[in-house]
Amino acid sequence: MTSLFDTATFGKIPLRNRLLMAPMTRNRATPEGAATALMAEYYAQRATSGLIITEGVQPSQVGQGFINTPGLHTPEQVASWRTVTDAVHAQGGRIMVQLMHSGRIGHPSLYASAHEPVAPSPVRAAGRQFTPEGLQEYLVPRELTTAEIDATVRDFADAARGAMEAGFDGVQIHAGNGFLLHQFLSENTNHRTDAYGGSVANRIRFTVEVTEAVTAAVGNEHTAVRVSPGNPYNDIAEGDTEALYAALVPALPELAFLEVCEIVTRPVTRAVRDLWRGNLVVNPHAAPDSFPATARTAQEVLDEGLADAVSLGALFLANPDLPARIAADGPYNDVDDSTFYGGDHRGYTDYPTLTA
Length: 356
Prior knowledge:
With 356 residues, the chain is of the alpha/beta class. It has helices at 37-44, 75-90, 146-165, 180-185, 200-203, 205-218, 241-251, 266-275, 295-304, 314-318, 322-327, and strands at residues 8-10, 13-15, 19-21, 51-57, 95-99, 118-119, 128-131, 134-137, 142-143, 170-174, 223-227, 257-261, 280-283, 309-312. The strands form four sheets. Strands 3-4-5-10-11-12-13-14 form an eight-stranded parallel β-barrel, surrounded by five helices. Strands 1-2 form a two-stranded antiparallel sheet. Helix 1 packs parallel to helix 2, helix 3 runs parallel beside helix 6 (205-218) and helix 7 runs parallel beside helix 8. The radius of gyration is 18 Å and the shape is globular. The protein starts with 7 loop residues before the first strand and ends in a 29-residue tail after the last helix.
């Protein structure tokens, strides 16, 4: 029986255990998108995880969706991340960057560039965004041209190269939680009539192209993808979840691992497990009457054979030394879920937290 404390190697990334730290946006970068000393300290504190997956990092200026989030699209940003990766490696840890393009999620008041959000189609997201001027409604995004789609694919590949230069052990592509790749996948946000819209085969095209470009840039063994089947966050309605992931999963190239952020969709997770022949990581949903997912939840996923490793978010936020606490059967610091915003957040791990 697999234990959370068994070692493993995913691609070329050795894991000291099978308990991964899930990505959680922290809004601690400089206004220029550089990583900070506080971020280095934060990640180094959690280096006993099998692998840290960072907060979402924008691969381009237009990909930024939240205030004070980091990037990997300038030389200064790349250099700033070296302090983070060095700090984690000094503690014997491993760290993978998550590349996340926010697409229609964001607001011009958040960035010096004041850029308008972009998306597969000009469909405004329901809801409001935290900005320096308070909560503001999302805007109608500008539809990406085919040339801009090609440029965005290149942006992901360039950012992945920058990540490896910065000392990361790998790169995860965020294709869930209502951000740009998920917007291309979903019926309610993708109304295109070209090769990137309409049929399931067309709607998965952008995600597959981004993944192929990143694997070509840094190697399959250093690349991962995160999906969140059925996740309605950021006003997403996939429309045909089972068919969508039945097409997407086999179309992905070989990876170090595929991660499923589970939104109370265990049957879909089992279907992904059957379709995916490589390493699978599951970020399990919490029990219906509790938040967040617990160590027991994580071990149950391994016991079922559903995954090769498990990622946890909020529990790592409250307990930097989480593996040691699990080994000792606690005690655990309480999770202050007021630092997460949105509706029913059980199972989500990417809500921006606005406290230090």
